[in-house]
Design a protein that fits this description.
mainly alpha; 22 helices; two-stranded antiparallel sheet; two-stranded antiparallel ribbon; 2% strand
């Protein structure tokens, strides 16, 4: 007697349970999903309304790409496993560098163009990625992920302080005016014909005044409270509550900030209840070859991590995947990134927090993630929700950011702990130099000022400098005969985006 038993991955649960479990997946990923549009939108110096639009577009595209990945779209797209797709933190560093080089709507259009171009290239190279695993052994993957976390920590600290270091002080205009009056006689002195005017200097450095809002102790106290609350939840709770500890910490911070009069809801009240996310809301994207190649390098790292996520999920669910299924899943990373660029948002990848949730709950049905994708689409059409997220004070996000971004760095360190440094001392040089190159843009932000402007987006990204140097040094010291099994295990360990 034969039975056509349905695999747990394909099991369709009752609608009520499906919706509840789908919402749980959304809550687990929500804080990470909305963090990237907040970071990039504010780096671009967009208006609060435009940042809110980025958040809506992000949630909307999250839902669409999740449906493609979990449901499947032809045999070429979709891993058909319980996967939630979200914006990857790996792309934040390069995008912030691009935003610093060109802000505003023009900068946004350039970023979206780079994302679309990289997405198209990612779709094309997806079948080749399994063959490239040997170039990404743990010593390379761990180093790259560590520098991603280190680079993002600057953003988290900036949030807690109330902004980037440039906001700590401003020019004391009244004192500067007084100083210029002192040198007016020298400036107005007659100059003999043919003689060079005398060099005139201010009688001292340009006067600066401290910004009272930067590093304010009450704001730091709220950020610290958020951090401590998250740590308490992580230590003393289990299961779902522990998985959404970052989100709950942000909620507590918002309550405290509102009670102190530091969080306002004017924009939430003015926002519409429902709106449609439209493609190319910022205008047609602009395409720059260097920026596209920069983002493509990021997508290669993202797909290496996705490979590990898919293999780990295959083991958790008991559904084996082959080369064709793996390629179909990786193509969605590329297709999702194209969709992201079209709908005014960012590169997409599988969210490993949700992979962990599958293991914790034991619910293996991909239809749960389909339900989660539908919920994300609905959230993306609610501008009031996006306006509420945009109104969260940066210092509240600072406490959560230190946890989220610090965990990325810690994951890289954990991967590096599996590397053989004793038997192969060359690995020490790979890590040392790659991290050193990655720190150049952090400690010397203007180091590219005498180089071609077109190279700035590439050279101002510590993540990409680390990736290029780590791969090159590994090839130099260890050759191309990489440990594919070790690379896959390293990718499985990469549980922070």
């Amino acid at each position: 007697m034969t039975t056509n038993a349905v695999h747990p991955v394909d099991e369709r649960l009752p609608l009520g349970r499906l919706a509840a479990l789908g919402l749980q997946h959304v809550l687990v990923m929500y804080a990470g999903a909305v963090a990237v549009p907040l970071i990039v939108g504010r780096a671009l110096k967009l208006s609060p309304e435009q940042v809110a639009m980025l958040i809506s577009a992000d949630l909307f595209a999250c839902g669409i790409v999740t449906l493609i990945q979990s449901l499947g779209f032809t045999k070429y797209f979709g891993i058909r496993l319980p996967v939630m797709m979200g914006v990857t933190f790996a792309a934040v560093g390069p995008m912030v560098a691009m935003a610093n080089a060109q802000s505003g709507v023009e900068g946004a259009r350039a970023i979206f163009g780079a994302i679309i171009g990289a997405g198209v290239l990612s779709v094309l190279i997806a079948p080749l990625m399994s063959r490239m695993m040997r170039f990404f052994p743990p010593v390379v993957t761990g180093t790259i992920i560590a520098i991603i976390g280190i680079s993002l920590m600057r953003v988290g600290v900036g949030w807690a302080m109330g902004g980037p270091p440039t906001l700590a002080q401003s020019v004391d205009v009244p004192k500067l005016v007084e100083m210029t009056k002192l040198i007016e006689p020298a400036l107005n002195a007659p100059v003999a014909p043919g003689a060079a005017p005398p060099a005139v200097k201010l009688p001292g450095p340009i006067p600066m005044v401290d910004n009272p809002n930067y590093g304010a102790l009450d704001n730091l106290a709220v950020a610290g409270l958020v951090l401590v609350f998250i740590l308490l939840l992580v230590k003393y709770t289990r299961g779902f509550v522990a998985n959404v500890s970052v989100l709950l910490g942000i909620v507590l911070g918002c309550v405290v900030a509102a009670a102190l009069g530091k969080m306002h809801f004017d924009k939430v009240g003015k926002a519409a209840w429902f709106d449609v996310v439209t493609p190319f809301a910022f205008g047609m994207p602009t395409f720059d070859l260097v920026m596209i190649l920069t983002m493509t390098l990021v997508m290669i790292v993202v797909m290496i991590e996705s490979t590990g996520m898919f293999l780990a999920l295959s083991e958790i669910t008991g559904k084996k995947i082959g080369q064709a299924e793996l390629a179909a899943g990786l193509r969605v990373d590329g297709l999702g990134t194209v969709i992201g660029g079209v709908f005014n948002t960012f590169p997409y990848t599988s969210f490993s927090q949700n992979v962990g949730l599958v293991g914790v709950t034991g619910v293996k049905s991909r239809w749960v993630c389909v339900a989660g994708g539908v919920i994300m689409i609905v959230l993306g059409t609610l501008p009031k929700m996006a306006a509420l997220v945009e109104s969260i004070p940066t210092f509240v996000l600072g406490g959560a950011g230190l946890v989220m971004f610090g965990m990325v760095a810690a994951t890289g360190i954990r991967i590096l702990s599996t590397v053989d440094f004793k038997g192969n001392r060359h690995n020490l040089y790979i890590v040392a130099l790659s991290i050193g190159f990655g720190l150049i843009p952090l400690v010397a932000p203007r180091w590219t000022q005498h180089m071609a402007h077109g190279l700035h987006p590439l050279l101002e990204s510590g993540i990409l400098l680390t990736a290029i140097s780590a791969v090159a040094l590994n090839l130099f010291f260890n050759g191309a005969k990489g440990d594919t099994v070790g690379a896959i295990e390293a990718a499985k360990t990469a549980e922070a985006h």
